[in-house]
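Box 3.1 A note on notation
Throughout this textbook, protein chains are presented in two layers. The first layer is the amino acid sequence; the second is a token string describing backbone geometry. Keep the layers aligned when reading.
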Amino acid sequence: MKIEKTTIGNYIFLHVSFIVYSFVGVTSKTAALQGWFTEGFLFYVALLLCILGIYAVLWQQALKKFPLVKAYSNKGVVVIWNLIWAVLFFQEVITLENIIGSAVIILGIMVVSSDAD
């Protein structure tokens, strides 16, 4: 299997894939807020499975563009997207610990991504 040269476009594709994956948290939390086995619950579970299916295809395409270690290390950005969705969709509050943790994740991604291919 040939891995393509890493470009900005490849990173954008990878991170859009992670944004899609981050909606798993939104749909699962929304499903949990519905009554057990109600129409709303089943809708959000079905939506969750669709999102996971789409992400599975995107992930396989991303692995054609990146070594597994580099692609997987970037998956940490999902935590940051989940923080954003928590504020936007569920009116949760971001704490100082959340910000520090996110900064550590970003630094870790930068270290791994800056390594030579």
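The mean pLDDT is 89. The radius of gyration is 16 Å.
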